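Researcher: Here's the sequence for the chain we discussed earlier.
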Amino acid sequence: MNRKELTPDGSPQEAFGARLRSLREARDWTQEQLADRIGYSSVHVSAVETGRKPPTLRFSRSTDRAFGIDGTVDTFERERRKLLQSGLLEGFPEYVKHEAQAVELRLFEIGIIPGLLQTPEYARVLADSAVRRGAISSEQADERVDFLARRQAALQRSRPPMVFVAMDESCIRRTVGGKAVMDAQLARLVEFAALPNTLLQVVPYDIGERRTFDLPVNLLTLPDRSVICYAESQAQGNVDRECTSVTTMLTAYHQLQAESLSQAASVAMIEQVRKGTL
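Model: Thanks. This is the structure I predict for it:
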């Protein structure tokens, strides 16, 4: 019988498979016996163990129940989440950890509504579009939407952070998912602007060259009042802590806010776009 030697340090997916095999063998279960317990074929179990197939959310949860570790801190579901985050842009997993603890968030976005303000329907349309383009799998699309929901939930705490959002006008004018999805998304922006811990501003087209950023930028103020910056291109994300460069980005953000519409004027524009009168 051929037995593939596993290298847990090779990749997060191989580490997942190696741990799965280790727990299975510790119980003296064959792949067929584990497969019967979780409702999969032994071929599927083998493919996950050897890193040839990524674990799905259902597979991970079924495996947790079979081993009696669901609800613990060492679940396969949790390990799968780390595995998926390893495929995110460089720097983004680190950024998300800080995002959940920040006391102030300053966001700038171009073209699409910032993730933290997206409705589930809007987020789903974007994820499904990536599937149709072949950029991600259906499973990854589900995880992308779920991951975004967890980020949004992390901000719903007893002392929520201040959230400043500057959106290029293109964000509200670019239709995503058709009229119904877009109408609900724009309504969500109006609701967001009414919260006591938020400031929403539209960056109008007519400021032209005075727009200070050409790429999305996130600035976080942490509990110790230090500030970090996260910016990304199509292929790479970067977390910056260096004081001089972060201060420069913060200054540019303040300059952008000064050129943007007030929150009242921004909400008025959003409502006009919803009604099709602008």
